[in-house]
Specification:
The chain has 265 residues and is mainly α. It is built from eleven helices and no strands. Helix 4 packs across helix 11 (228-258). The protein is globular, with a radius of gyration of 20 Å.
Length: 265
């Protein structure tokens, strides 16, 4: 598939969310199982020395795996965890480029984590120490949590992680389906998002509104029925469902930006 940058209207951001949710609801258990298994594997990797970096570096394969699964479901197939490694079974050049993308993303993510820890680590350590010594409901914890550097650190992390994600957003798919090289795919992804920036603003705000709306609904239900256990069980399920739907929506943003690999058949 050649590079075909297309014009994308701002309201397409809402369409990506809608279509992603609809596709997720066609195979909710399969998509949720994919994400859960990926998170489980990443959690195991993250506690291992040296290999722990693979948990960060593997995120490009997470997005690409969901795109492969989304395309398969749209064509009448199934979604399954094997689709995370399906692209690595392709030709040697594309496999090598995908692994390079993973390595570059891992280094970038590690740099973001290191920078936030270096700038705001004292405030985070103070909060952890207060919680371990005095309990979560103590005045010491409240005082440590009021440190403005915690909010600054959180916002800085979100900003840096967002900037890092832009060149990698479509890069794995451009390598796998477009046959692009590492640097070309990173450039194409950045250019595509810049050209469709209005749609991505709408896309991001829609997912944020959905997350906040469901969180508010859970809080109201828990308060109304005096059932904190409801929140304990529903919050993880909601997070998995929303996250899975988000990842299924990536396929639609890719197709609108660059066209479908099926167009050439």
């Amino acid at each position: 598939m050649g590079l075909k940058l297309q014009s994308v209207a701002a309201n397409q951001g809402w369409t990506w969310v809608r279509d992603g949710v609809r596709l997720y609801l066609r195979r909710p258990l399969a998509f949720s199982a994919m994400l859960l298994l990926f998170l489980l594997a990443s959690g195991i990797w993250s506690v291992l020395p040296v290999v722990g970096l693979a948990a960060l570096a593997s995120l490009p394969l997470l997005s690409l795996g969901f795109m492969v699964a989304s395309r398969a479901v749209l064509r009448g197939g199934m979604a399954h965890p094997g689709q995370f490694i399906e692209p690595l079974r392709g030709d040697a050049a594309r496999r090598r480029n995908l692994l390079w993308l993973c390595a570059l993303y891992g280094v970038g993510a590690l740099a973001v984590v290191w920078a936030i820890g270096w700038l705001y680590g004292d405030a985070m350590d103070a909060l952890r120490d207060a919680m371990s010594k005095h309990g979560a409901a103590s005045d010491e914890v409240a005082q440590a949590a009021a440190d403005p550097r915690l909010l600054e650190g959180t916002l800085s992390f979100v900003l840096l992680a967002g900037v890092l994600s832009i060149p990698f957003w479509h890069a794995p798919a451009l390598v796998w389906w477009g046959g692009q090289g590492v640097w070309q795919s990173l450039f194409s992804s950045t250019l595509g998002i810049w050209r469709a920036r209005g749609a991505y603003v709408v896309y991001s705000l829609t997912w944020l509104a959905a997350s906040m709306g469901f969180s508010l609904l859970l809080g109201v239900l828990a308060g109304t029925f005096s059932a904190p256990a409801l929140v304990t069980w529903l919050v993880p399920a909601l997070v998995i469902a929303l996250s899975s739907a988000f990842y299924t929506s990536l396929w639609f943003s890719f197709v609108d930006n660059f066209g479908s690999p099926d167009d050439e058949h």
